Amino acid sequence: MISVVIPLYNKEASIKQSLMSVLSQSCQDFEVVIVDDGSTDNSVAKVEEIQDSRIHLIRQENGGPSKARNTGVKNAKGEWVLFLDADDELLPDAIKNLWNGAKNHQLSDFVCAPFYIVCKNKSRLACQYQDACVKNPYKGHFYGRLAPRTGALICKKKICLSNPFDERIRRFEDLEWLFRLYKYIKVFTISKPVLKTNVDFSSASRARKDIKEDFLGYLDFNGKSFWEKMALYSFFLGERDYYVEQCKKLYPWLYRRYDWLLIYKVIGWMK
Fold this sequence. Notes:
The protein is of the alpha/beta class. The chain has twelve helices and twelve strands.
């Protein structure tokens, strides 16, 4: 069985549609664990409008998305876990396709699928995969050959329990979790898309103030392999402009040393 864990915070406009995308799956071997993280709107009321024995609603004080996900895993009964954001939607055969991927490659800890990005009623396929094992997830991530999103993957529950989300982080917490897992897990990709993720550009463009809430505030290059460093550096380059002064204080050596940027560009050209 797959446990679908949905962290919920002030998503009254979208949670019902997201939840219905799960309940209408072609494969019905699942449960839904919704963790309300102290919502102040009508999110919980929207969930309670749907009467289904597979839905388990847990309420807690606001602690952030990482804590909500960890709470969901602790209460999950399935062997595999799928983390779904409360404003994303599963495609009708999502659970079936992910479950088949897990069965067809039983040594995998992590099954990852393509997904669509939806913005202003227009959608595009964010990535394309083959049915295959990923030998080096860090290298795949750097080159864009592996671009996982939590709603488009399943992970074994025992892996989630032994590697919980970092509850200090409220932004890009899923990416920090993935970067930690890449070192230990066996990743299998499937070719069929499973998710529509709704991008809210208005919220994404809000000014960021506290780097301590962001994965960017906790980057550690020490003791990392070459490709792990390159994947981290790629993330750093993409996000540093949100916290220019704080990044200069935290990572002055990344600004002083140009060899990082040179290596990054050279291996990018070799793609």
